[in-house]
Amino acid sequence: MSGIITVGLDGTDHAAVAADWAAQEAERRRSALRLVHAWVWRPTDVAYVGDRAAEERWVRNMLDEARARVAREHPSLDVTTELIVDDPVPALLAEAARADMLVLGSRGYGTLTGYLIGSVSMKVLRHAAGPVVMVGKPHSGTPQQAPEVVVGVEPGQTGDAVLEFAFSAAAERGGTLRAVHAWSVPPALAWGPGSLYLVDEANGLEQINREVLAEALKPWRDKYPQVEVVEQFEIGSASEVLLSNSADAGLVVVGRRSHEAGLRRLGPVTHAVLHHATAPVAVVPHDCPPK
C-alpha cells in the first residue's frame, strides 16, 4: 500500500468535511494525508475583477488554510498540499491511481433528495483505478466515524478488491463488518423439474444463497480473524436492502464493474447508494490492483 490518502479540495464546505473525515482515516491507518486542488488558468475576453496571480493566490491560500485546520486537530499527522496545474478529472484520476484512496466531498441533503454529485466526481467515480470515497455532511443523529462497516456482497460478482477494502476498513476501526446480500426468487419459468428437485434437495433457495455468501466471505474471515462479521441476508431489492442496513454505518463499501475495455459505468445499486446513503460511501473497482 502507498500509505497515502488524498483529498480533492475545491474551497467548498463539503470538501472541508471530506478533508476532516480523511484526516481521521489517515490517523487511524497511520497514513500520510495529501490535500490537492486541480487548477488551470483560462483567461477570457470578459472584463472582471481578478487575474491569474490573484486566482492562484486564492487557491494556494485555500490549501494552506485546509492544511492548518487539519494540523490543529491532528498535530502528529503528515499533511502535504499540492496545486496541480491540470484539469480536475485527469488530475484526480491520477491521484486515485497512486493513493490508497481518494476522498471527495458530496453535498448531502438527506435520503429524500439524496447526494448531489457533480459531473467531475461522477467521471472520477466511473473511471478511477482505485477506491474513491464520497463524504457528505453528517446528518443530525448520525454517529460520526461509527465503527461498523457495511459492504454489499454479490457472490460470484463482488471482486476481491471490494472485500479486501471492506475487511481492512473494519479491521482498522476495530468494529463490525456487516456483509449484506439481497436475493430474490427467480422466475418460475427459468426452472425446470430437474432444477427444482436439486433446489429441494439442498433445502431450498435460501439455504443455497446462505452457503454461497458464506463461501465468498470465508477467505477474508481467515485473513482478518479479528474482524467480527455479521451476515445480513434478506430477500428484496439489493439497493433497498443495502440502504436499510447502512443507516448507522461509519462507511458503506460498494463495487464498480468494468464491462468492456474502455467502458466503465456505475451499476444501479452503486448509483442508488451514492445518492441516498447517509454514511460515507467507498466505491471500489472490482479489478482494482493491490497498492
From TrEMBL:
Gene3D superfamilies on file: HUPs
All residue ranges annotated as the UspA domain in the record: 3-135, 149-285
Pfam family, one: Usp
InterPro entries per UniProt: Rossmann-like_a/b/a_fold (IPR014729), Universal_stress_UspA (IPR006015), UspA (IPR006016)
Family, per entry: Belongs to the universal stress protein A family.
Name of the protein: Universal stress protein
